[in-house]
Amino acid sequence: MKHKIMVIFTAVMLLFIVSSCSQKKGNSALSSPASPKNVIMIIGDGMGPEQVGLLLTYARQAPHSVLGDKTTCFDKIMEKDGSLGISLTYAHNVLVTDSAASGSQLATGHSSGSEMIGLDYNGDPVPTVLERAIQAGKSTGLVTDTRVTDATPAAFAAHQPHRKMGDAIALDMLSLGPDVLLGGGLGNWIPREANDKNSRVRRELEEITQGSVAIKSKRRDSQNLLARARENGYGLVFNRSQLAAASGKVIGLFAASAMPNAIAVSNCLNDPDRSVPTLEEMSLKAIDILSQNDQGFFLMIEAGQIDWAAHSNDAGLMLHEMIRLNETVNAVLDWAKNREDTLIILTADHTTGGFGFSYTAKDLPRASQLPGMMFKDKDYKPGYNYGDPHVLDKLYSQKLSYGDIFDKFYQLSKEEQTPKNLAMLVNQYTAFPITIAQAQRILETEDNPIYLPDNRKLNAKRVPKLDNKDEFYPSQKFSNIHALLALAVAGDQFAVWNTGTHTNTPVLVFTKGSVRARKPFAGVIHHTQLGQYAIDAVRGK
């Protein structure tokens, strides 16, 4: 009898232990913090699966990858406490979004119209996640390597009918008052009188910027937003050393317009006199300032020039831009390591360029012998050239962006702007040489008539000859001629480009944080949902 009682008692205890363990395991998600204290949204502008794939391929296959452990930020997010989702990006009633509409959807959780800033598709202002964070008592910040008034950061802190209204966007940002604002775009913050080299405001700006930033106003009025920012309690910084010393509310403007591209940054990274901070340095400084708030913070970080590289079909620059993103995200992940109070959202506003590697029929591989039993009596000889991984090292070795190469070319005298000199520059700064004949094709132009509304021809511009330029390369300023260079070297790069503009390919959404915080993002969603989930996280829902 006593034995039976012991058996029953033991069985009951085992059932209790198993039940308790099972319950604990089942409720592990519920034991996570109800809502994150901090939300960091990182946006790779134009960063579709194609760009993510480029970085992953480089990390894993480049013989001399600078990512020594072959691990990217995407890998690190997914190692532990990470989730992956897919988000559709289209704006209201269109197939393809621009950065303004997409950024507005991410910021507000509402469907937006093309080129609108912080509005719904009817044109009404909608509170953004940054505004919601301020209402919740959190600190807030925006960091970008483009202009702080550019479409993506603007969508989080302004409400305007069009993305090009930089003067009004800057006013909105100052009125809203995020704690940290770092990037380029000084021109929208200084009065038009600053362009007069003899003016008092010009002398004042030269003194406070310490000669670090070119002073060129883009404003059409006399409003000095920097003076107003000081009155509102902001510290103003214009170079790397000033940023390092900053504390409290700060506006940092490190370029007249956009900040340097990633190749230019790589070229001067170890220069002791470097005055322009990196995206990583700006991001860590922002976190340092914002994390002083016991209520937490919301921070949006934009790697904005991935998009620009893709618009130019510049594969080497795009790789460098992805590495710049990678360095920044890794630094943020290191800061957030072992913190369950922080949600990190890494995504893109849209995809750009339709990039990919493809096999070709050029330079077919030679026949070779393999040790396997199925090749005892025959050679191994694929029918196509599937691409040599050494091309990845060549892409990384690019010394100037296509834009900077053409800038050098057009700084030559008219007599020196020859196909021979263009080929020389391309061959000097990239690992994919072109011939003089190819350079001549790149420099060929054609008349592009401009018509008045009554269909009268006004004039004609000479623009690069490119098939489908009106459809897929509409930016005559740079995309056409860059795309022609990309086409000339495409075979050697094993690269294909579908367009010089955006595509509607869904983007990836990487999230890191507690189970509860990241769960909503791990499905097939739309950017309006992603934006609403971010707002819910900030509001503690």
Shape: globular
What fraction, in percent, of the residue positions are helical? 40-55%
- The poorly predicted ranges are 1-31
Give the biggest sheet: 10 strands, mixed
Estimate the mean pLDDT confidence: 91
Biggest sheet: strands side by side, in what order?
5-6-4-3-7-1-8-15-2-16
CATH superfamily of the domain at 38-355 and 502-539, called what?
Alkaline Phosphatase, subunit A
Rg to the nearest angstrom? 27 Å
At the first level of CATH, the class of the domain at 38-355 and 502-539 is Alpha Beta
CATH fold-level name of the domain at 38-355 and 502-539: Alkaline Phosphatase, subunit A
Structural class: alpha/beta
Give a quick precis of the structure.
This protein has 541 residues and is α/β, with parallel strands linked by helices. It contains 22 helices and 16 strands. The chain is globular, with a radius of gyration of 27 Å.
Helix/strand layout:
Blueprint: H1 2-26, E1 38-44, H2 49-61, H3 73-79, E2 82-88, H4 99-108, H5 129-135, E3 139-147, H6 151-157, H7 166-176, E4 180-184, H8 200-209, H9 225-231, E5 235-237, H10 240-245, E6 250-253, H11 262-268, H12 279-290, E7 297-303, H13 305-311, H14 315-336, E8 342-347, E9 351-352, E10 356-357, H15 390-396, H16 402-410, H17 419-429, H18 436-443, E11 445-451, E12 457-464, H19 469-472, H20 479-493, E13 495-496, E14 502-503, E15 507-512, H21 515-518, E16 524-526, H22 527-539
Parallel strand pairs: 1-7, 1-8, 2-16, 3-4, 3-7, 4-6, 5-6
Antiparallel strand pairs: 2-15, 8-15, 9-14, 10-13, 11-12
Helix pairs in contact: 2-14, 3-14, 4-6, 4-22, 5-22, 12-14, 13-14, 16-17, 17-18, 18-20
